[in-house]
Amino acid sequence: MAKRKRLIASLDQIRARLADAPRALAFHPGGDFVTWKAQFKAKILELLGPFPDPVPLNAEVVEEVVVDDFEDAGIPAFTQQKVVFDSEPYASVVAYLLIPQCADGRERRPAILNAHGHGSGKSEMVGLDPKCYLPGSDAPTISAAALHLVKAGFVVLAPDWRPFGERSLDSVFARAGRDPCNVTYMSFGYFGVNLLALNIWDAQRSLDYLEKLPFIDPDRIGMVGLSYGGTLTTYATALDDRVKAAVVSGYCSTLNDAMSLRGKGNYCGSQYLPGLLQWGDIPDVVGLIAPRPLLIESGSLDDCFVIEDTNLAYEELQEIYAAAGATDKLERDIADVPHQYIFHKLVPFLQNYL
């Protein structure tokens, strides 16, 4: 009888558990989509734990300006409001609302909830972060996604998630070298709530806010996000049918890669769902969006979510969409770019479905 290998190092233990992870509710080809979706969605909600109690939004516009700084870059002037609304008894959301000049109230417009990733939060989405510009250029790159979406005629809401932007963790609280996402996750965990669930909740309250705007068509709301923004787009769209079309950029992947020596723990407290591998994997969560329209962006030079792994995840996603009878609603855009938006198919895709 062969002697069992001792597992001493933590990484060896993690990889051994990963190899045996049951993924008990992962979708398998030939399965019934409707039954699977109901069971897996219920399990995801259970793993996320309790959501906060709703409170009145008490929305307030605290700043309003007409932005015409980008007209030379082909972005027409638009109105930018800074808005604040309450999401739960212990938190308020701060966001930028971008309104194209064509949104004059005579017709209801489509809207996009633009989810930022790790970084400066909503400021990057609206071009207030220097990283949105190439050296010597005043034209915002596609990193400032909200600007390029409002250019296309969408009303865009870009909130700060916890703990980013104006909602970031105070630097005097987190010790030097600590990841604010992890510290925030554990801090909320002491109260029995999950950071990912809280941000999903804020996304849903953001949808509540958009629905109440008189110039928004509530049946034409989409969601877009890169990296952690892709995480939020995935979960919020999966759990809230009010999102009619979604673009997930640079996130559709597998935990097998994230937990490998290559991925080097490619996750943090803001996107961590306890127990996921007991029941499924990231492609299964993304698959809950089916049968609604979904565009996946993948960079072949992305060293965060490598193309080989995203190809495997997308193959699983194709199987789910096929079972849902919605293969025509799933699209992919691959380009030779690093970890960034692509924006080749993104705008036409949203215009087609919204």
What is the CATH domain class? Alpha Beta
At CATH level 2, the architecture is: 3-Layer(aba) Sandwich
What Rg, in angstroms, do the CA atoms define?
20 Å
Helix share bin: 25-40%
User: Which sequence of strands runs across the widest sheet?
Assistant: 1-2-3-5-4-6-7-8-9
Low-confidence stretches at least 5 residues in length (pLDDT < 50)? none
Strand percent estimate: 15-25%
Distance from N terminus to C terminus (CA atoms, Å) equals: 62 Å
Named CATH topology:
Rossmann fold
Taking all residues together, what is the mean pLDDT? 96
Helix-strand pattern: HHEEEEHHEHHEHEHHHEHEH
* Number of strand segments: 9
Number of helices: 12
Sheet with most strands: 9 strands, mixed
Question: Gist?
Answer:
By secondary structure, this protein is of the alpha/beta class. The chain contains twelve helices and nine strands.
Explain what you see.
This protein is α/β, with parallel strands linked by helices and 354 residues long. The protein has a single domain (30-353), classed as Rossmann fold, CATH 3.40.50. Helix content is 33%, strand content 19%. The protein has helices at residues 10-20, 33-48, 122-125, 145-151, 180-189, 195-212, 228-239, 255-258, 276-279, 282-287, 307-323, 346-353; strands at residues 60-67, 78-88, 91-100, 109-115, 155-159, 216-226, 245-249, 294-299, 330-335. It has a 9-stranded mixed beta sheet, sandwiched between helices. A hairpin with a 2-residue loop joins strand 2 and strand 3. The longest helix is centred in the middle third of the chain and has 18 residues, at 195-212. It is globular, with a radius of gyration of 20 Å. The mean pLDDT is 96.
